UniProtKB/TrEMBL annotation:
SUPFAM superfamilies: ISP domain. The gene is RFESD. It comes from Anser brachyrhynchus (Pink-footed goose). Keywords: 2Fe-2S, Acetylation, Iron, Iron-sulfur, Metal-binding, Phosphoprotein, Repeat. InterPro entries: Rieske_2Fe-2S, Rieske_2Fe-2S_sf, Sol_Rieske_ferrdox_dom. GO terms for molecular function: 2 iron, 2 sulfur cluster binding; metal ion binding. This is Rieske domain-containing protein. Residues 21-134 form the Rieske domain. Its cofactor is [2Fe-2S] cluster. Gene3D superfamilies: Rieske [2Fe-2S] iron-sulphur domain.
Length: 170
């Protein structure tokens, strides 16, 4: 009955038996277009863009910039978040880092968007009954953004646990 206990506080994420974490109401996120939430201690940003929900680690894989404050742009036919710190471009759908490169061997080299591969961890979003859930990360696979997700965890739930433990190492 976790739902009953916490229903008075809409900010408390609810953990479901299958690990899905409630991050908000479908209507609220559609209105605000983006929210941040804690999923298993890590900061995640959920975007609603052109009829779809996307969840990514909120800290940019480059140096930890706040992607929740970035602009969404369509680049090479894909919706991307542009990091506000150094303008790295990350696809919302796959978490790929894109860069504009030139092939000097072409007769008239033109810059083209290319992928560096998946750099930012994306998270599965489930919408059910007007609620939006994010699946917990599969940590058997790692991504560059994990480094900053771990680093910024210290500002959140884990830091609180550490203090109460009285053996905080730092
Ligand atoms: S921190 Fe995001 S581009 Fe540098």
């Amino acid at each position: 009955h976790a739902l009953d206990q916490n229903s008075s506080d809409p900010h408390l994420p609810l953990q479901w038996p299958d690990g899905l974490v409630l991050v908000g109401k479908e209507d609220d996120i559609k209105n605000s277009q983006r929210i941040t939430a804690k999923v298993n201690g890590r900061e995640v940003v959920v975007f609603y863009h052109e009829g779809k929900f996307h969840a990514l680690d909120s800290r940019c894989y480059h140096e930890g910039g706040p992607l929740n404050l970035g602009e969404i742009e369509d680049i090479a036919g894909q919706p991307c978040i542009v990091c506000p710190w150094h303008k790295y471009v990350i696809t919302l759908e796959t978490g790929e880092g894109l860069y504009e490169g030139i092939n000097p061997l072409e007769p008239s080299p033109t810059p083209r968007w290319q992928s560096k591969g998946v750099k930012q961890r994306i998270h599965k979003v489930t919408v059910n009954n007007g609620n939006v859930y994010v699946s917990p990360p599969d940590l058997s696979v790692s991504f560059d953004s994990d480094y900053f997700a771990d680093k910024y965890k210290n500002n959140g739930d884990l830091a609180v646990k550490k203090k109460s433990n009285s053996q905080a190492a730092e």
